[in-house]
Amino acid sequence: MAEEPDDRFKAIIVNMILDSQPEAALEALSRRYRVDTPRLGVGVFKRHSKGVRAVYAPDRKEILAAKREFLYDPFVILHEFYHHIRSAGGKHRGTEKNADRFAVEYIRAFNRVVALLGESNKHD
Ligand SMILES: [Zn+2]
Question: For a FRET experiment, which of 1, 39, 46, 92 has its CA 20 to 30 Å from that of 65?
């Protein structure tokens, strides 16, 4: 895997997803991690029980969200993207804990950058 992206990159990715551009975010992420860009869709899936917001289908390299609104949820998109980069040969890899950790790290980086921007915008 490529070296760890910096906070700025992570913040931009989270911002893109919040800004309703999850496809652009996935393209940028895929370039960064040197993987094919996963497809993104909304649909019905039977795996798991209710309450699951999205799944990753390694055979189709597709992130499938249960509802359109989940496409704009950075945690959901980043969690599933982690499964995408950890998948090889159509096999589902990477633990849920690690997928959560990956997503949380991006969101924390976004929050750090937002906090810094807030500081620099302060007037006295
Ligand atoms: Zn998962």
Answer: 1
pLDDT in tens, 63-108: 999 999 999 999 999 999 999 999 865 555 668 999 999 999 999 9
Residue pLDDT, tens place only, 24-44: 999 999 999 999 999 999 988
CA 31 – ligand 1 centroid, Å: 21
Distance CA 117, CA 87 (A): 36
Domains in the chain, start-ordered, CATH in brackets? 7-120 (3.30.2010)
* Residues contacting residue 71 through CB under 8 Å, at least 6 positions apart: 17, 20, 22, 40, 42, 65, 77
How far away, in angstroms, is 118 Cα from ligand 1 center?
A: 33
Q: How far is the CA of 83 from the centre of ligand 1 (A)?
A: 7
